[in-house]
Write a structure and sequence with these properties.
The chain has 431 residues and is mostly beta strands. It is built from 2 helices and 33 strands. It has helices spanning 3-11, 391-399; strands spanning 25-27, 31-35, 40-42, 45-47, 57-65, 72-76, 81-82, 90-92, 103-105, 117-125, 132-135, 140-145, 150-153, 157-161, 166-168, 171-174, 184-193, 201-205, 210-211, 219-222, 228-231, 241-250, 253-258, 263-268, 281-284, 289-290, 304-311, 317-320, 335-338, 342-345, 354-365, 373-379, 383-387. The strands form 8 sheets. Strands 2, 5, 6, 7, 10, 11 and 12 form a 7-stranded mixed β-sheet that branches. Strands 14, 17, 18, 19, 22, 23 and 24 form a 7-stranded mixed β-sheet that branches. β20 and β21 (228-231) form a beta hairpin.
């Protein structure tokens, strides 16, 4: 019996802590960073079978420790009790009845990272039945930075389709207590790992221009701050963890930092499980909204759902993304979601005969493995947008309307994919 299975067997004496395949899951980001004195919120989304009914109470329990399953309990929302070390600093900010178990820890200190990992455990009270409980196995690695350090933030995961050009964001920040003048970015390095959220293989160095052999001609820096990494034409072999390191100078000092836990890039092939439906064509401004309908997998609730819209053949970029930084300049400030997944456009004159593609990303309990979450990403067949007016007028308008000093079609490299998750839970079914 493997160590994990043995641990699950022991823990099961106190309930279904490890969960059951395809039934019970809890999702957390692999890592979070904060400055000493700040507050940090541990997101925790969870699901359980629809057949479980008669629940009288949903309790969220936070454990902290140095390895898998995080060790000792430090907080129980059911009783409101907290261990002495964390007294008055832990609170439930999510609503367990909507399957949101987010917990906030205030006034974080360097001593909080002695335990390193923080795990969300869910407990259901069902009268006349055995209590069900399960948790995320890996937990969230907490990093607390000092005043003279930088924090580094990356999205926990990014799903993308084979052939996409993917942008992985990397943001760094200096403590608000520091007033630094003339800050400048000196260098950025990226590394990767196949199996773990911390990275051990260097793949890009802006100072030396070194690029890993498998990424030659496909990898470059992107983003307004020059810290994002972009990988062209991704394939299944690019499904790795990616970690960012940066060096910044300011007021004669050098600040260096690297993320403790990277971004998991998840590459998938095209499927049609969600049966995404879009109209073949719409005319603007008669119909400024493009609808997107999809179906949830049968008998399953998602841990997380993300909606994104891309445009162009081949894909030129995002017409809508929850992170405005990643929206193509042509559409920045001109698009938004209406309803759950429909795209609303405004001021798109001169961009006729452009196709828009609805993408739906979803995280679900794996149907066969315990404590494993699978990610789906699918794309609709596209909707052709026609703008009232002649094609000639539209083409002239497009040529005469540069974006940020560049032609609108070349302002952003094509097909960038970046999904910040997990986010708020969405529970609905559109058919």
């Amino acid at each position: 019996m493997s160590g994990l299975l043995l641990l699950c067997s022991v823990l099961s004496l106190w309930g279904a802590v490890c969960g059951r395949p395809g039934q019970y899951c809890a999702d957390q980001p692999s890592g979070l960073e904060a400055f000493a004195g700040d507050s940090v919120t541990f997101p925790c989304s969870f699901v359980f079978p629809r057949t479980v009914t008669g629940i009288t109470n949903v309790t969220i329990i936070l454990h902290a420790g140095v390895g898998n399953y995080c060790g000792a309990r430090i907080y129980n929302s059911g009783y409101g009790n907290t261990t002495q070390e964390y007294q008055g600093r832990v609170s439930l900010v999510g609503d367990p009845w909507t399957r949101n178990g987010a917990i906030t820890l205030t006034n974080v200190t360097t001593s909080d990272v002695v335990r390193k990992y923080y795990c969300c455990r869910v407990r259901l009270l069902i009268p006349n039945k055995e209590t069900e409980q399960w948790q995320n196995a890996g937990g969230t690695w907490l990093t607390v930075r000092g005043e003279n350090e930088m924090t580094m933030h990356q999205p926990p995961f990014i799903p993308a389709l084979v052939g996409d050009t993917v942008t992985i964001p990397c943001h760094f920040s200096i403590s608000a207590k520091k007033k630094i003048q003339n800050m400048s970015l000196s260098s950025v390095q990226w590394s990767s790992s196949v199996f773990f959220p911390f990275c051990d293989t260097d793949i890009y160095n802006s100072a030396t221009g070194a690029v890993h052999s498998k990424n030659k001609g496909r990898m470059s820096l992107a983003g307004e701050g020059g810290t994002f990494i972009q990988i062209k034409h991704v394939g299944l072999s690019d499904s790795d963890w990616y970690c960012c390191r940066a060096q910044v100078t300011g007021d004669g000092q050098v600040y260096r930092t690297e993320t403790e836990r990277g971004t998991h890039l998840i590459i998938t092939g095209k499927t049609n499980e969600m049966k995404i439906e879009q109209p073949k064509e719409v005319t603007f401004p008669d119909s400024p909204t493009i609808s997107c309908n999809y179906t949830l997998p049968e008998n399953e609730d998602p841990l997380w759902v993300g909606i994104y819209w891309m445009f162009g053949d081949p894909r030129e970029g995002f017409a809508y993304h929850p992170d405005p930084e990643l929206i193509h300049p042509r559409y920045r400030g001109k698009t938004r979601l209406v309803g759950q997944s429909d795209l609303y456009l405004e001021e798109v004159n001169g961009m006729d005969n452009t196709s828009f593609y609805c993408r739906v990303a979803m995280r679900l309990c794996d149907s066969t493995a315990t404590n494993h979450i699978e990610t789906l990403l699918e794309e609709g067949t596209g909707t052709l947008l026609r703008v009232n007016g002649t094609r000639k007028q539209s083409q002239q308008s497009q040529q005469m309307d540069p974006v940020d000093g560049e032609n609108a079609d070349s302002a952003v490299p094509g097909g960038t994919i970046s999904i910040f998750g997990p986010g708020p839970l969405t529970f609905f079914s559109k058919t």
